[in-house]
Amino acid sequence: MATGPMFLTGANAKIVINSKLIAYAADVSYNVDAVTVPVEVMGRYEVLSNETVAFGVNGSFTVVRYAKDMAKNAGIDDANETGNAADNLGVGSHINPAKMLESSTFELNVFQKYKEIEDVNSTGGGTKTSLVGIFRIEECRIVRRVGSLSKRGVLMETYAFVGILGGDMKEDGSGLSISNSI
User: Which of 103, 95, 108 is nearest to 144 (CA)?
Assistant: First the structure.
């Protein structure tokens, strides 16, 4: 039996890049665009049709930055002990001119975390936390990194990305419910 919220919220969402959970992810946003162009003909004022010519995905995610050992000292699970700078997130080579040519794309996944109460009669009871795949963006590249720090705030870094294909994940979490055109 599942418990918890019925809707995906920031409190129960997990952002994963290349199978690596991103600790302190504050938000994620994405746009999936089908680019269309109008087909016009001589002698007709209105457009004959709108035809799709491209498909694109872009978006951003924000993390609350922390330094080496800060999360470990605070006893926070899911955090990398070496901090969450761009290199530790696995995207540092995308925005480092010396490493751009050797960088590779990544997958960005959004999961919903929920707790499942096990049946006392069959398993002895207890709770189990599970992740359900919601959205996946494939072959992403970082195109921008923006930081913001206010006097009474925390350092927030926003990473903008572009991707090749994005859509809802299959129910079993194995891949996308959409596919390439070829």
Answer: 95
